[in-house]
Specification:
Elements: H1 10-21, H2 45-54, E1 64-68, H3 74-81, E2 85-90, H4 93-106, E3 110-114, E4 129-135, H5 144-157, E5 158-167, E6 181-184, E7 189-193, E8 204-206, E9 209-216, H6 220-229, E10 233-238, E11 244-248
Parallel strand pairs: 1-2, 1-4, 2-3, 4-5
Antiparallel strand pairs: 5-11, 6-7, 7-9, 8-9, 10-11
The protein binds S-adenosylmethionine (SAM).
């Protein structure tokens, strides 16, 4: 399977190209016009700070953490600065190039690599972790099959006593889907009209128009049920839209 043609590749590749051109530090700055670049102010920082205070973990220098979908690495660097041993992966090579530079500038010891987290499901497990973190990657992994592979990859790499910390975008009654996007309330999938040159691999047709999966915006119970069906036990589900989850195997 050629990862560069999957529905979740092109948008993220374009975003990191723009981020580099415009001197931004992280993904969230792309969507908040006029916001000053601030690497330390990443969206799920408060949740991670709160969750890490409550978890029953060994001394931080003995805790192995994996972040997938790390982008330019704001959360990974925050975790490393706290003393955790951090591995961080992202699909997009440009994101990892920038992440390595930012980490080096801040003296943060993070082992970054380029990796599709869904593809990890097919790879041998080389290391297990005490904590696995998702800082807003999950909503971009849209189809049941891909999410199943992601969850299998996480389960295989989480130690028995480990924690899975997820921050994900959720269904929001206030959200307006712009023209060209279509939300299916039965699945929580938002589809995006496929550009003319898009790969056919993930395309579906609705009313004669071709669409690609774009986001998964679930309601709180649906996210909880999905995680429980995937073999996790949801310990807590917080945040305004209930997208901040602590789960265990
Ligand atoms: C919303 S951005 C968040 C980035 C970062 N966590 C942050 O807070 O700035 C989602 C990230 O997930 C990455 N991503 C999407 N699909 C992925 C996959 N299949 N494997 C690994 N990373 C993926 C994207 O490249 C992007 O960096």
């Amino acid at each position: 399977m050629e990862v560069r043609v999957r529905y979740y590749y092109a948008e993220h590749e374009d975003a990191y190209r723009r981020l580099q051109q415009e001197g931004m530090t992280q993904w969230s700055e792309l969507f908040e016009e006029g916001r000053a670049a601030d690497f330390g102010a990443f969206p799920n920082r408060e949740f991670l700070e709160h969750a890490l205070r409550c978890l029953d973990l060994p001394a931080t220098s003995e805790v192995d953490v994996l972040e997938y979908g790390c982008g330019t690495g704001p959360a990974a660097c925050f975790l490393a600065a706290r003393g955790f041993r951090v591995d961080a992966i992202d699909l997009i090579p440009q994101a990892i190039t920038v992440a390595r530079r930012f980490a080096a500038e801040r003296g943060a010891d993070v082992r970054f690599s380029v990796q599709d987290v869904c593809a990890l499901a097919d790879e041998p497990v080389r290391k297990q972790y005490d904590v696995i973190v998702d800082s807003y990657c999950l909503q971009s992994i849209v189809t049941d099959a891909d999410r199943g592979r992601l969850f299998a990859a996480v389960r295989a790499r989480l130690r028995d006593e480990g924690y899975y910390l997820v921050s994900t975008a959720m269904y929001d009654a206030e959200r307006v889907y712009e023209p060209g996007f279509r939300y299916d309330p039965t699945t929580g999938i938002c589809y995006e009209e496929a550009p003319y040159a898009a790969s056919r691999q993930d395309m579906i047709e609705i009313d004669g128009t071709s669409y690609l999966p774009h986001r998964r915006h679930l309601q709180p119970m649906a996210l909880r049920d999905e995680l429980e069906s995937a073999g996790f036990h949801v310990v807590s589900q917080e945040g305004l839209l209930k997208g901040d989850v602590v789960a265990r195997c």
